[in-house]
Amino acid sequence: MVLPGGMMDSDINRHCAHNFPAVAYTLGRANWPQLRDTYNKLATDDQCLSPETRKGMIDALPQFMPMDNSMLNGNWRYRHEFAKQCNKLCEMYGIEEINRTMSAIALTLANDRVSEVRKEAVHLLSQILARLVDHEWADLTSKQESSVDSPSPATLTELFVHDLVSGFANTQKWTRRQTFAYVCERVLLDHALSMEQFRYFLLPHLIAMADDSVVNVRIAVCRALSLCDSSVQSHAIASDSRRLSPLTVETVLERLAADPDMDVARAARQAMGQTVGNETVDVSMRGFRIREKENAFLDVQLVDNYEEDDMSLCSDYTSSETPTRNKQMGLSE
User: Beta-carbon neighbour count of residue 306 at 10 Å?
Assistant: First the structure.
């Protein structure tokens, strides 16, 4: 289409895209709702965006999501919407841009105090991991086959997984460990990685959390392990000096099926494909245990001054078939 003055639509888009970073910087993050639709339109216009312009647009993202306390303690709906937009943009950029900008945003939002923001960030982490592995898997497999005497530099995928494991799986805060299990579940649901890739990068760390002291974490582990196919179920994951037999998904689920907590045992049996619908539950004992943990949790709340808006810490992905309750009560992070 030719507009008055002889300009084409593509010319206007090109000029808008070229100047968008400066406009975004000038208007600031408070005006993101007015800029969001324009950003999405320009970012998806393959005919007018040069690599330099695309780079400038993604470099503008941190202007809307600075990693400071004012943003992290502000309106959670803004952070939720921002994570959703990043999910839409993830497929459009190369791994260098994703690693430089989006990975830090995703890791930060995955630790948000609001469960809805964390849930959207888990989707983004799954997408980022899929993009990195897809681009570097051939190099990683050849790296495995190379001699140990000639170590090569870590790839972007290995660095990202290291950040994910150290910041979530191997942390003292139980909600982060639970989030790591959610990431594993999301990766399997999205088929973001093949089973071989999942076993290589994430499964050993997920298996290690099967002995977690927090019930909610163990339930999340069961839900993630339920999505592993038969090629992984019987595959030896890691050797454990405390056990004579090799550790497999099957053996882990069997151990969790005998867990003293009834909800963990139920989740494990569901993961193994066993019917649990007609089980008899001792309601009186369950009520006593819940009241006991409620009292302990209130004591902890008075000491640690927990925020009231961070109480939705149960599984973000719990289905209607799985009993839901705040299992963290009475347990330290």
Answer: 14
Q: At the topology level of CATH, where does 202-277 sit?
A: Leucine-rich Repeat Variant (1.25.10)
Residue where the block lists tokens 């494991």: 165
| DSSP 3-state of 223 | helix
**C-beta of residue 205 within 8 angstroms of C-beta of residue 220:** no
180 neighbors 164 (Cβ within 8 angstroms): yes
The gap from C-alpha 328 to its chain's centroid, in whole angstroms, comes to: 20
Model pLDDT for residues 41-58, shown as the tens digit of each residue: 776 665 555 566 555 655
For position 232, what pLDDT does the model report? 61
CA nearest neighbour of 314 among 167, 241, 185, 214: 214
DSSP-derived 3-state class of residue 190: helix
Model pTM score: 0.67
Count CB neighbours of 70 within 10 A: 8
Distances (CA, A) of 261 to 206, 266, 285, 290: 19, 9, 12, 12
Q: How far apart are CA 120 and CA 83, in angstroms?
A: 6
Say if residue 266 is exposed, middle or buried (CB neighbours under 10 Å; 0-12, 13-18, 19+).
Answer: buried
> What is the rounded distance in angstroms from the CA atom of residue 324 to the CA atom of residue 220?
12
Distance separating alpha carbons of residues 131 and 193, to the nearest angstrom: 9
**pLDDT tens-digit profile of 170-202?**
999 999 999 999 999 999 999 999 999 999 999
Alpha helix ranges (H) inside 191-309: 195-201, 203-208, 215-225, 230-233, 249-257, 262-271, 283-304
| CA–CA separation, 309 and 113 (whole Å) | 8
What type of residue is 84? K
In the chain, domain spans: 1-64, 74-141+153-184, 202-277
